[in-house]
Amino acid sequence: MPKREAESSDEAVQSKKAKTSDDSQVAIQLQKDDEGSYYVDLGSMKRATVSQFKGKANLNIREYYTDKPSGQLRPGKKGITLKVTQWETLLSVTNSLTEKLKEVDSGTSSKVVEKKEAKKEKPKAKKSDGKMPAKKRKKAESSEEDEDE
Fold first, then answer.
1. Inside any domain, residue 99
2. Sign of the four-CA dihedral 42, 3, 57, 66
3. Could you tell me where the Basic and acidic residues compositional bias lies (predicted)?
4. Is residue 105 part of a domain?
5. Residue 43 lies in a domain
6. Cβ neighbours of residue 33 closer than 8 Å, sequence gap 6 or more
7. Which end of the chain is more exposed for a tag (fewer CB within 10 A), N or C?
8. Is 51 in contact with 37 (CB distance < 8 Å)?
9. Secondary structure (DSSP) of the chain
């Protein structure tokens, strides 16, 4: 895989190709953050970052926010950290997951169809028959008793 020269000493950039829905090729850039970890920008303030914690490599998929005082991007609470073995497991089933995602997205999955039908069959809430709910009725009755005394 060819590497491009980094624009600065902090950013090493490596190009990879990814397929999009229209089968055109889009370059995905592997970038390096201030801490020396490599990441891919996933858009919508999300990143996939390869980092090390206690000597073990991890893949972090996380939302980021802009720190107001410094203006820097910081990792947020929302996200997941995968160990190398978990990442390998996920990679081994990517074709199956991609297939199922397409089915669900197009609405052809049988479970999705069943859920849609179940929602249609839900009984509708009964319309009010003009009676007061029990809680309000008790409150009204107790206030009437107070007035009688």
1. no
2. negative
3. 112-132
4. no
5. yes
6. 39, 49
7. C
8. yes
9. --EEEEEETTEEEEEEEEE-TTS-EEEEEEEE-TTS-EEEEEETTEEEEEEEETTEEEEEEEEEEE-TTT--EEEEEEEEEEEHHHHHHHHHTHHHHHHHHHHHHHT--HHHHHHHHHHHTSPPPPPP-SPPPHHHHHHHHHHHHHHH-
pLDDT per residue as tens, the chain (149 positions): 343 344 444 444 444 545 445 444 567 789 998 888 999 999 999 999 999 999 999 999 999 999 999 988 888 999 999 999 999 999 999 999 999 999 998 886 665 556 666 666 666 655 556 666 777 767 767 666 655 55
CA distance 69 to 109: 47
CATH of the domain at 13: 2.30.31.10
Residue 9: give the domain boundaries. Answer: 3-93
Asked, for residue 98, whether it belongs to a domain, the answer is: no
C-alpha closest to that of 30 among 22, 21, 20, 40: 40
Q: Cβ atoms within 10 A of the Cβ of 49, count?
A: 20
